[in-house]
Write a structure and sequence with these properties.
With 347 residues, the chain is of the alpha+beta class. Helix content is 34%, strand content 24%. It contains eleven helices and 14 strands. The chain has a six-stranded mixed β-sheet. The chain is globular and about 85 Å long. The relative contact order is 0.16.
């Protein structure tokens, strides 16, 4: 009788539970840096615990968002900048909930790879913690998963989940936007975390190295700059003036995202000459032979967030944001929608 094969173990299949323990030990002290007085317990339980702050208001509304970083991860890994995409992950989520006027409270992350390596996970989580610190929220927990066979060695994916809160009376939904209102644009830090499948196609076609220079910076610096987190200046602004609508400019560009907050009967015209387009976008357009319409539909082209305010408040809002260290511009105005016309026109 043939001898039976030796029993299989989880480790034989490619997953070592010791690696998972090493990850927890590596990331727990990083997460503790972001904790505040509302956090209960620490990282390691089955769920994260957070006491809702009493100063939200009498009718607190929780606002949640989830996102990822996309194929920017591949460029970041090639350039050895895995920590920066941790900031991207937080930014993509907290900027979304900020669009409703919500204050980010806590964040959770999900890291998946073929094999867990504590040092690599810690590098990403350190970036996530930097993002949480910029947004003023706590890293409440997360999950790391080893899935050999689904991911090639060295590949990984990220997802993030942010929860914030806003008093119901202060919720921003664009409902009060009307003709004559002004559109304020706040500059981004680069392509942020959108359009990188096209970015990678341009790099492949052009054969240009990430060490090449564009606009006085390396291509790596220009393309991989972490997504700007707008939480602190915008939340301060909300205590000073009424903001009728906020659009986080992600996939779909300015037109695609601004149109999401316009109520029925409203449209907008955006003046593309109101801000200087960063050199990295000009490089992408020229190196890839990308048409202007495709550029505007795929990339933020220099504007990472757009606010809609009363026209009489526009100059004061721009001045406030510039005083807070942001590059801000009045980039357009809201108009009445005309049948058959695009809701947002960029000219």
């Amino acid at each position: 009788m043939a001898k039976p094969p030796p029993p299989l173990t989880y480790r034989d299949s490619g997953v070592d539970l010791a690696d998972a323990g090493a990850v927890v030990r590596a990331v727990a002290p990083l997460a503790r840096r972001t904790a505040n007085e509302h956090c209960i317990g620490g990282v390691g339980g089955f769920g994260g615990l957070f006491q809702l702050p009493a100063d939200i208001g009498p009718q607190p509304v929780l606002v949640a968002g989830a996102d990822g970083v996309g194929t920017k991860l591949q460029l970041a890994a090639a350039a050895g900048r895995n920590g920066d995409v941790g900031v991207d992950l937080v930014a993509m989520c907290v900027n979304d909930i900020l669009a409703h006027g919500a204050r980010p409270l806590f964040f959770l992350d999900y890291y998946a790879s073929g094999q867990l390596r504590a040092e690599a996970v810690a590098e990403v989580v350190a970036g996530i913690c930097r993002g949480c610190e910029q947004a003023g929220c706590a890293l409440l927990g997360g999950e790391s998963a080893a899935m050999p066979g689904l991911y090639r060695d060295g590949d990984y994916d990220l997802a993030g989940f942010a929860v914030g809160a806003v008093n119901r009376a202060d919720l921003i939904d664009g409902g009060g936007i009307g003709a004559g209102d002004a559109v304020i644009g706040i500059a981004g830090s680069g392509p942020h975390a959108n359009g990188f499948s096209l970015v990678r196609a341009v790099l492949k076609r052009s054969g240009v190295s990430l060490s090449a220079t564009v606009g006085g910076a390396t291509l790596a610096d220009a393309l991989l700059a972490p997504t700007k987190i707008y939480v602190r200046p915008v939340l301060r602004l909300l205590t000073q003036t009424t903001v009728k609508g906020i659009a986080h400019i992600t996939g779909g560009g300015i037109a695609g995202n601004l149109s999401r907050i316009l109520p029925p009967g409203a449209a907008a015209r955006v003046d593309a000459s109101a801000w200087a387009r960063p050199a990295v976008f000009t490089w992408l357009k020229d190196a890839g032979g990308i048409g202007e319409e495709e550029m505007l539909r795929t990339f933020n082209c220099g504007i990472g967030m757009a606010l809609v305010v009363d026209a009489a408040e526009a100059d004061g809002v721009v001045k406030f944001l510039r005083g807070a260290g942001e590059e801000a511009f009045c980039i357009g105005k809201v108009t009445a929608a005309v049948g058959g016309e695009q809701r947002v026109v960029i000219a």
